[in-house]
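Lecture notes, unit on protein representations.

Consider one protein chain, 178 amino acids long.
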Amino acid sequence: MTFCPVRLLLGRTGFSFCYTYFMRVLGIDPGYGRMGIAVVEKSKTGEVLLLSDCIETSKDLSFAERLGKLAGGFEKVCKKWRPSQVALEKLFFTKNQKTAMQVAEVRGMILHLCQKRALSVREYSPQQVKVAVTGSGSASKNQVANMVTRILALKKNLKHDDEYDAIAIALTDIHTLP
């Protein structure tokens, strides 16, 4: 959690500060073609979506160049939004082992960058995210997107499922903290 000074109070004994707590979580849906990112802030009044986007890479780039572009995008988001912590989706195995290996490498890069920035990381399985956001571990991507839209009162539809997933991962982190 981060301390945010809200106001300066002048009392009989001098100055005192009144602090409020807020939490800013960077949610990440890892991928190497498109990585969903979202910054969600939790305060006393509720959750607010500060950013949702996708960092996309071209198929024409080498895998190393794609990792570099993803790392650069991650660093820009961290520098601008200064998250308190990072929530990352755990890897689930797919039929395509090559894809799973490359997504695992993206996750490793993200974990390394979080370590360099001293950011705590919490990891959630897709089923944990679905349960936290919809109440059902077997919810569809559409149901997750609908609940994200309702929870945050989003006015517009997002371009990619990866953005909804990143937001859902951030919300899961916010709602599972002690």
